[in-house]
Amino acid sequence: MPELIPPDARFRVSFLDAVHEHIVEDDFFGGTLARELREHGGTWNRPTGFARYVEAVREEELEDGRRPEGFVPSTWYWYVDGDTYLGRIQIRHRLTPWLLDYGGHIGYGVRPAHRRRGHATGMLRDVLPYAHELGLDPVLVTCDATNIASRKVIESGGGKFEDERDGKLRYWIRTRTGS
Fold first, then answer.
1. pLDDT tens across 78-116, in order?
2. Quick one: what percent of the chain has pLDDT higher than 90?
3. Which of 4, 33, 8, 32 is nearest to 20 (CA)?
4. CA distance 123 to 127
5. Residue 178: pLDDT over 90
6. Cα–Cα dist 92/71, whole Å
7. Confidence of residue 179 (pLDDT cuts 50, 70, 90)
8. Residue 108 CA: distances (Å) to CA of 48, 53, 61, 88, 150
């Protein structure tokens, strides 16, 4: 059964398989994967290098942690099933003006070989209690107006449509159970 976990170096091989799938699909997780490849990709083939990458990702959630300039603290979770990395989801702890218009609190992606199996829906559902623990309620989740699959995920997760801004659909989702 798939579950959300903090990023973990023991998924290196499966994660790297997923990276290859994303590269083949020319899908760079909104630029996140391209940035990670530039900063860490050269060391991912070694377990120690990949462990340093995982440590850096986990440090992004700290208020004074290392992260790209202008980025807010964010908590990442990986969605895994057994030894298989399926995708990831990010909770941004607060919104900048740009995130308010375009990025939202939550961003997610499923590796190409495992899409259309309900994993994005499961990740979004499972991350909402963690967002609530961070004091976020409701959360903003956005998607491209042309991304019908993501729109359906957000709507099935309780997303209430607010508006469209420059091709981005903006939805608010309550994080409290039963809300």
1. 999 999 999 999 999 999 999 999 999 999 999 999 999
2. 91
3. 33
4. 6
5. no
6. 9
7. very low
8. 26, 19, 16, 6, 9
| Maximal CA-CA distance, the chain | 45
Handedness of CA 156, 159, 162, 163 (dihedral sign): negative
pTM, two decimals, is 0.94
Residue closest to 54 by CA, chosen among 38, 76, 32? 76
The token duo for 108 is: 């997610």
Place of tokens 């990670």: 36
